[in-house]
Amino acid sequence: MPELPLLRFIPFRRRDIVSMCLAQQRLDPNQRQRFEQACAHIEKQFQLDFHRVREELKNSYAPFDPDADTRLIETVPAAADSGELAEKLEAVLNRANYEKVTAQKLDAAMHSTSLFQVRLYVELEDFEEVLLYTRGRSQREETLKEFFGLWRKKVQFTNYDRVVLFLRVKDEVNSDSTLGDCPPGSTMIRLFQNVPAADMEMLFPNIRVGMRTLDKLMIGVPALVSGGIVFTTKLGATLVLLGSLLGFWLGLSSEAVELDRRTLLILFTGLGTLGAYLWKQFTNFKTRKLRYTQALTENLYFKLLDNNAGVLYRVLDEAEESECKESYLAYHFLLSAEGPISAEGLDQTIENWLADTWQCRIDFEIADALAKLDALGMAREAQGMWELCDTGQ
What is the pTM of this model? Predict the structure, then answer.
């Protein structure tokens, strides 16, 4: 499998980061106490910061929340506030180490072969704005079964640990849309886990399940074969009778056909057989499509983590965690350094420590981490070298 570019996300809890740093025995007792006090100070400052961000996001989302049970006392211009909401959410997701999916990647995902072996359709025209963000990525392999399990093939695919979907519904939605009772103009936010890159379209609320060419052949070929048998064995007399009637009515034959009880019985028996055959084929088609829809629904049940306002609270907590973890690591390795150190040297030290000690390879955001410590008055730069401030806590 091709090696994927490194991501920013640190896959450990912030409390675990503190324990991991202290477990290295790189600090003397006084430094350990200083580090723990610094972590408490960092955590307190980010709690205050994110409390403000949380209130701003709640107020921005309130006019568009389809699940709200509170009343609005003023009318806010939808276009302006929805754009503001998207910007604020994107800023929080960036702080939580989510990556934005470009329009090109989304289009590629829409045209990729689904791992569910179904054809999925999404009407993007129902939405005014579509934004996708992912976090955590890995290459996986899965064995797919075809032809009733007689043939198997292995496929490699990119899997995302977390996916956030932001949708703003148009003010006027097509009456044929499958959005259900979703109010026009509302904004939906969804959080999913373990999503294959090729199946991004299954996350949309207006998804439609179609039939692949293989599925159509597996239904159509047996239908044609059985249809030929039905027509030649059970509909022969009926077809002859219908041909005679049509020939007489169209003036192609001078021989009249007497519609007695016997001929009517033949006619209605044949039509009943034909109707039963067509109904059976239609039922086969609907049953196969329903089976795919059920498999998709069951899979989404375990992938959906949160909806709407719940997503906001969850990503806010993740963003606070990420900010703290990055600051903890930068502070710890500045504290344990033998003297002032460059940003590049500190970055390499942290990345090597995570990779060698904890088997975790990431692209640590050293510039962002040092900027946070600088803003908190806990570290300073002089001539390209970084060190802790004496009054950092």
Answer: 0.76
